[in-house]
Design a protein that fits this description.
The structure is a single chain. 31% of the residues are buried. The protein has helices spanning 39-58, 75-80, 91-97, 246-250, and strands spanning 125-133, 144-149, 174-178, 184-190, 195-197, 203-205, 208-213, 222-227, 255-256, 267-270, 273-274. The strands form 3 sheets. Strands 1, 4, 9, 10 and 11 form a 5-stranded mixed β-sheet that branches. By secondary structure, it is an alpha+beta fold. The protein has one domain: Protocatechuate 3,4-Dioxygenase, subunit A, CATH 2.60.130.10. Bound molecules: fe (ii) ion. Residues 9, 208, 210, 288 line the site of fe (ii) ion (FE2).
Amino acid sequence: MAAASDIANGPDTSDTDTDTDPDPTARRPGGSDAAEATQLEIFREIQAFHADAAKRRADGTPASSDPELDFPPYRSSVLRHPHRPAVTAPEAFVELAGPVFGDADVSELDADLTHQHIGEPLGERIIVTGRVLDRAGRPVRGQLVEIWQANAAGRYAHRRDRHPAPLDPNFTGAGRCLTDSEGRYRFVTIKPGAYPWRNHRNAWRPAHIHFSFFGTAFTQRLVTQMYFPRDPLFPLDPIYNSITDEDARGRLVAAYDHDRTTAEWALGYNWDVVLDGPAATRLEQDQH
Ligand SMILES: [Fe+2]
């Protein structure tokens, strides 16, 4: 998992470790070079992968609602996915050495991404809220929730983002809050734009907001992405589709909520998150 401050977006050409995977292209259904693959080829690879997953489920393999860590349509995952089992860190050490925070570290203003500068950012003002629940449906209170996102034009305020879309001097795109007694978080922000990336030719990420749920120790942290309903880019996006289970993918999509919409002010979206159990919101495998 990446840190909230470690926004990795746009092209990533840092994959140079081929020691454990000498010819990843040979395993791609289309066999195309990453930069040369068309959207249609990627779409067909996704469909083929999903069809295989459905067949395995039909043959009795338990359905997984986690993302595939090695998902060839998402090109960099071929080289970047873990090749060895995870190492369990000693709990006491993690709790002593991990970052800590308290109520005093998070102010109410941190949850309003439209009031972090002198002027207001451009774009469609939205309210994003939801409840953080455990597997039994109980609220997770006092949970540190962090978000980061692109601006309305689809550009991050980050040195690695080279998308030739305008930066907004009134929008940084990062916020945080603590869940209340009902496990609810709430942000006021700007609806992010879609942005291009270099997974394949003419690749675009659906609009999304990155979320981090801190947990009670650093190793419990959940990092994932929230999407907006009925995005036309869903079937084309390899990251979204790295979860082969359709229901699990759907749990990454917020619902438009007119009760959360504020008259003359902002549209409302609701997105509940379950931290573990069968209905859990899945971890993403990477940050884009
Ligand atoms: Fe992103």
